[in-house]
Each structure stands twice: as structure tokens, then as C-alpha cells.
Amino acid sequence: MKQSVFTILGNTALTDTVFQMVLQGDTSAITAPGQFVNIKLDGLYLRRPISVCDLCGDKLTIVYKAVGKGTETMSQMQAGEKLDVLTGLGNGYDMTLSGNDPVLLGGGVGVPPMYLLAKRLLAQGKNVSVILGFNTASEIFYEEEFKKLGADVTVTTVDGSYGIKGFVTDALQSMEYSYFYTCGPEPMLKAVYKASKTSGQMSFEKRMGCGFGACMGCSCKTITGYKRICKEGPVMQKEEILWED
What we know:
Strand order of the largest sheet: 10-9-8-7-11-12-15
CATH superfamily of the domain at 2-89: Translation factors
Strand content: 35-45%
Radius of gyration: 17 Å
């Protein structure tokens, strides 16, 4: 973990509620796709955890949804403003287990961490398939960005307004793959767990207090006991997860 001051280079809307922010600063603590940063905002006690979408030298891209006071404040920030950021948080995805034909599944704001992961896997020569899940066509973002990387992209929408009607698991059923990686809301992760034909890794979204393992507020139950999503997670192996009814 490293605390640094980052400069905002750009902050643009991707949809009515989803924004892309590019930051410049010390990114040396970020070592794996799937890690997150924790951003301090004036007037708010808790930092805001946001997954890393892309990384290039000292430039860091995050994609976030404006859903509360903190992210609404972020959405109004301009280029040139500064942010206090904790970087290098979480464990990230293990790419050594991917096999030759991994599939990446992202739902809503679980899409962004899939981008850097796809970029890194493609650079290793893997045949990467990506399934992006949204509620409706107006919520879709980053489809073209994944295609430009060279990934095979499928989009699903719950209402059928674009792509395959249904959920990411509906697209997954007809695919052949060596391993899966996923990030999204817990109901989606549970559905992927049940539908998947191989082992894989899941990144969990939890409300975090400190973001680096001190408060125990984001713990979840696994086969080896309770683990902190912000410290031992957010990425966990499929086989270690114990789902609570």
C-alpha cells in the first residue's frame, strides 16, 4: 500500500451515471489486475474504494458509478485537481492459472477491472473472451475498448435491448473456456459459480471501512475461515467460497 497525491488529467461521462477518470501519479504499488485504490474526498470520513481499470506508466484509469455523495463529488471534479489516493490495495487476479482460453465476465461496475486483466492476458498470447452484462442498452460502456484490445466480446442485457437477452451466465453456457475471471454484484457471482464448468476467480464488491484490513468490516466466510475482502480479497478462488443463504 502506498499513499500518494494524484493529479486528475480527465474526467468524462461514459453513460448517464458512469464516469471515467484518468489520474497521474505514483502507480508503483499497483502490481496486478484486480487491485483497487482508495480515494480520500474532502468532507467525507471514509475513503471511496474504486477498482483499477487501466494502468500505463504513471497514468491510472478508474471507472466509477455516481451513486452517492462521494462518487457524485468525484463526477464533478475537473482536470488539474488533486486527489489523495491509497494504491496497491487488494490481492488482484492470478493470471498463471488462466490456461489458453480464459473467459472474463463483468457485470455493471464490475466491468472495469476486467479491462486491465484482458489487456495483460492478451499480451501473453491468450485467446481472451469477454462477457459484459448490463440491465439495458443505455448502461453499456467499454464494449468497443475491449474489442480494440483484440478480445472476443459478447454483451448481454437483462431487457434484451442489446446483444443477448438475459445475464452473463446465459452467454457463458454456450462457450468453451479454460478458466474464468469475474467481477460484479454478489447475485451475479453466485450465478457464475453455479454455471461455470471450470475453476476460476471472483472479485467481490463489499462496503469497506478502512480499505486495508484494520477494521474487519468487510469480512466474508470461506472454507478456511473469515477473510477480509479488502486485504485477502477482493479476488478469491471459486473453490474457497462459502455462500450464505
